[in-house]
Amino acid sequence: MDTKFQSSFIPKQPVNEPVRYRSGSNIFFLISFLIFIVGCVGVGGVYLWDKQMDKKITDINSSLIKFRNSFDQNTIREFTYLNNRINSADVLLKQHVAPSVLFKIIGDVTLKNVRFSNFKYSNAGSDKVSISMSGEAKSYEAVALQSSAFTNPKLRNVFRNILFSDPDLNSDGTAVFSFSTGIDPSLLNYYKLKSDPNNRTVKATTTGSTVDTANRTAPGNNP
Fold it and tell me: Model pTM?
């Protein structure tokens, strides 16, 4: 019996080609994986840093508590009370006013043949300091000279809104009048005066031509 052997190089079944992945897909996957790894590392780093900071804060608080407890509490309370008293005294000192400095200035600027009485001082706050007085002079000319003395340029930072009013004559011929003016509040600041050992602020207003005018007597009149 003859056996027939048939050979053929043509396959009976279709051959499946191997799946080939595109290189672009591999790169995208690699980049995504790297981003994921970096994100995980970042989250882990932030978590560890946060834990480390919390530990440092806790340690610092513990150190502060130990340091505070090392002091005697009674001593701390005494120092706190003393500090509050010093601060209160400092505030009161800086707010204190010394109207008595006005008597020095008014005395230096007043003419020899003029006198004042009925001194009234008003401090309404908010830089609203004023004085008012009744005046008497030998004549109206003396009143005019007195007005000139108060309006001397060297006193422009002392007196504000100067007003001479209600002029009249007494039975003996002397002139009477009313005087009012605002005062620069800084001039009366007690703290400022004490911090200036030479009282330069007051001296600056009572030297030179101001004093020369104040020491004059109105012509034709004797005090």
Answer: 0.50
